[in-house]
Write a structure and sequence with these properties.
Blueprint lengths: L2 E2 L10 H13 L7 H9 E2 L3 H6 L3 H27 L4 E5 L6 H4 L6 E6 L1 H10 L6 E5 L17 E5 L8 H14 L4 E6 L2 H14 L14 H6 L5 E7 L14 H12 L4 E7 L4
Parallel strand pairs: 1-2, 3-4, 3-6, 4-5, 6-7
Antiparallel strand pairs: 7-9, 8-9
The structure holds S-adenosylmethionine.
Keywords: Methyltransferase, Transferase
EC number: 2.1.1.-
Protein name: Class I SAM-dependent methyltransferase
């Protein structure tokens, strides 16, 4: 039996990073490996033929590297938080079929994977929750899910490729509500400036033939713009491609390193980290 992802919904966007992680595992195994993704691609009822055709083009290869690097960056931040909070809740917001929570499992944290109910139904079949793990069907914009998270040992939240599909007001409301509910917690996510977000809609959604889904939330100077939302937010950011690694692996060309500089610099592709309360 194959599991179906509905066409032309924001849920369908999970296919883009899923496929990119497979491509990156094949092209840049020194930098990123994700065996689970490779297996999942075969188990989903989705037509990957277009994606496959385009997957070796220059821009798609670079895009795959971007997706894999942001996953590494977010995993770095989760592990970093777990060093001081070994029993924390590790919460994957808009998880799709990503397993970063498990990748970061330290044996004592609690892992939560949150997404819309139809995605969680597929996830429950393909990636049933393990020990200390919970898959939670929800709309992230309805804070009812807060009560399901045991943050008694701290909480680190991450959202990978998710907030682009939110309006700025929605991200702001959610972040402020999280600051109320999870003092001492941390939220990390990827973001980019308006030019880059327009490109996501034009290039990525279009080439994946996903209709009726828009990309909206953009940020340029995260500490300043997001910091102004609420005095309890301690905001920092690092380049998404080069903020955590120098990409000096021989498998990455000089041209791709140049594109990475352009992405981090001109497009403001970044990993934003928000601490709820406490010192900067
Ligand atoms: C581009 S995919 C990223 C999936 C995953 N984070 C990854 O990196 O593979 C965006 C995901 O966010 C989920 N999503 C978007 N808006 C959401 C909302 N309001 N509530 C719950 N999930 C949402 C979608 O269903 C989709 O699975």
């Amino acid at each position: 039996m194959k599991y179906k992802i509905e066409k032309n919904t924001v849920q369908e966007t999970l296919i883009i990073p899923l496929y990119a992680r497979k491509v990156c595992s094949e092209l840049y195994p020194n930098l990123y490996r994700d065996e689970t993704t490779v297996r999942l691609i075969d188990e989903i009822n989705y037509d990957f033929s277009e994606a496959e055709k385009k997957s070796r083009s220059l821009m798609q290869r670079f895009g795959s590297l971007e997706v894999a690097m942001r996953q590494n960056d977010l995993a770095f931040e989760v592990r970093d938080y777990l060093k001081s909070h070994p029993n924390a809740a590790v919460v994957n917001l808009g998880c799709g079929l990503d397993c970063t929570g498990r990748t970061c499992d330290n044996g004592s944290c609690k892992i939560y994977n949150l997404d819309f109910p139809d995605v969680i139904t597929v996830r429950n079949e393909l990636l049933p929750a393990g020990e200390r793990e919970k898959n939670i069907p929800c709309d992230l914009n309805d804070t009812a899910w807060f009560s399901e998270i045991d943050a008694s040992g701290g909480a680190v939240f991450f959202a990978s490729g998710v907030f682009y599909y939110f309006l700025t007001e929605q991200v702001k409301t959610l972040v402020r509500a999280m600051a109320d509910a999870f003092p001492g917690g941390v939220l990390v996510f990827d973001a980019a400036n308006r030019t880059a977000v327009k490109m996501i809609a034009k290039t990525w959604l279009k080439s994946a033939q996903i209709k009726d889904v828009g990309a909206y939330f953009a940020v340029s100077d995260a500490p300043q713009e997001i910091g102004a939302w609420d005095s309890r937010l301690r905001v920092s950011s690092r380049g998404y491609m080069l903020g955590y690694t120098d990409l000096k692996d021989p498998s990455v060309s000089g041209f791709f390193r140049f594109l990475a500089r352009v992405g981090d610099g001109m497009m403001k592709m970044q990993i934003v980290k928000i601490r709820f309360g406490g010192k900067q």
